[in-house]
Amino acid sequence: MGPGWRAASAALVGGSVAIFAALRRLALAVPQPAAVRSRPGRVWRWRNLLVSFAHSVLAGLWALFSLWHSPELLSDIQDGYSVSGHLLVCFSSGYFIHDTLDIIFNHQSRSSWEYLVHHAMAISAFVSLIITGRFLVAAVLLLLVEVSNIFLTVRMLLKMSNVPSPALYEANKYINLVVYFAFRLAPQAYLTCYFLRHVELQGQGAFLTANLLLLDAMILMYFSRLLRSDFFPSLRKGSAGRDVDGEKFLID
């Protein structure tokens, strides 16, 4: 990638940050459920999750479209390239940067430190992809996770708002489990096997492989929390009476 293309990519990332800052302002106008308004610690979390939901819908559908439109990309994980995939990586990089700043500036770093670790990994990996133009297909495959995040975010919004509709939560619970396997665990497992078998463990390859393995551990940890919370509540430990207003991950 030449200097001009890199500068254009940086401008796209900056534009994405501005888009999500605008969405955050729009989220202020969205009516908040009484259960959210009555707990000050939940107000920021509710607004943050709405922005996260918007990114998940846009990025998840975008990743699906990119792979559907150019299926030949899957035959070249390392050097395959598409303009759509490049723009998607820039777009999601902007979201991760915006969300990191939102967490820090609103003093939520302590309760959302796992997100900060995840975002640092994603931003550093995506920047390396944008600069080199390599492994963009791997990034698009990883961004299929945003399809899963749509239902995961709906789950958290329902829990926060105390919506009196157990049927809605139950339906989303099972859909969430299916898409978790299809769009989070399956692509992650495929890419991990691919990187360990075909990518040289040096330079960018080593950096991305290390990132991928750490992400594997995080995803399995979140999956175990999800199973305990929604399917095996008797296995939960130490959560009774806990105030989780500041918790952003699958704790309860």
Automatic annotation (TrEMBL):
Membrane-crossing residue ranges in chain numbering: 6-27, 48-68, 137-158, 178-199, 205-227
- What do the Gene Ontology cellular component annotations say? plasma membrane
Q: Where in the cell is it found?
A: Membrane
Mainly localized where?
Answer: membrane
Which residues are in the TLC domain? 41-235
Q: Name one GO biological process term.
A: membrane assembly
Among SMART domains, the record links this protein to: TLC
Q: How does it sit in the membrane?
A: Multi-pass membrane protein
Pfam family, any one:
TRAM_LAG1_CLN8
What's in the keyword line of the UniProt record? Membrane, Transmembrane, Transmembrane helix
Q: What is this protein called?
A: TLCD1 protein
